[in-house]
Amino acid sequence: MPWIDKEKCAGCGICLDICPAGAIQMHEQVAAIDDNMCVRCGKCHDVCPVEAVRHDGERLPMMLRDNRDYVIRLLGYCDGEDEREKLLERLTRHFRLQQKTAQITIDWIASEKNALAETAL
Ligand code: SF4
Ligand code: SF4
Fold first, then answer.
1. Measured from the CB, is residue 9 less than 6 Å from ligand 2?
2. What is the pLDDT of residue 98?
3. Cα of 82 to ligand 2 centre, how many Å?
4. pTM for this one?
5. Is the Cβ atom of 31 under 6 angstroms away from ligand 1?
6. 41 lines ligand 2 (CB under 6 A)
7. Which of 19, 48, 54, 55 to mutate to test the pocket of ligand 1 (most atoms within 8 A of CB)?
8. How far is Cα 92 from Cα 100, in angstroms, rounded to an integer?
9. Of the N and C termini of the chain, which has fewer Cβ atoms inside 10 Å?
10. For residues 15 and 23, what is the distance between their CA atoms, to the nearest angstrom?
11. Which residues have a Cβ under 8 Å from the Cβ of 41 and sit 6 or more positions away?
12. Which residues pair with 3 in a beta bridge?
């Protein structure tokens, strides 16, 4: 999912005009992408004159930080070591499920790639 570096955005509005999904809004002269509306076409990335629209991979450090913050926040609700250990086991299962879901989806795309690319939905 593309994302916009707020520090770089010049507020020109070019990406808003090109977005086919209406997924970009301007807040106080800074563009923001609604992840739920974005259809991942990449057009905003191609037209931004200041390279403020960034790729998914660059978001990895932020995603890791969010996950760590999430784990630490939930640990704050535990009462004692036993509860913390049980929570960590549940969170491990939670992230393993995400990992498994992503891997199965990746495998499905790989196995059906040609058929999916040829299909007009
Ligand atoms: S095109 Fe780039 S600089 Fe212009 S509003 Fe969009 S993200 Fe900001
Ligand atoms: S990737 Fe496409 S749909 Fe998503 S915000 Fe950019 S222009 Fe809009």
1. no
2. 97
3. 45
4. 0.77
5. yes
6. yes
7. 48
8. 12
9. C
10. 10
11. 20, 21
12. 54
H or E segment to which residue 80 belongs: none
Ligand 2 atom closest to the Cα of residue 24 is 5
> SS3 of 76, please?
coil
Domain ranges of the chain: 3-54, 59-118
Q: Which of 50, 22, 44 is nearest to 34 (CA)?
A: 22
> What is each CA distance from 29 to 57, 59, 68, in whole angstroms?
25, 22, 31
Most confident of 59-63, 101-105, 113-117: 101-105
Instruction: Give the CA-trace dihedral at 69, 1, 39, 5, to 10 degrees.
Output: 100
Which option is the CATH number for 3-54: 3.30.70.20, 2.30.22.10, 3.30.70.420, 3.30.450.40? 3.30.70.20
Amino acid at 77: Y
Report the distance separating Cα 24 and Cα 12, nearest Å: 12
Tell me the percentage of the chain whose pLDDT exceeds 70.
98
Record the tokens describing residue 93, joined without a space.
């299962």
Beta strands in 30-75 (DSSP E): 30-33, 53-54
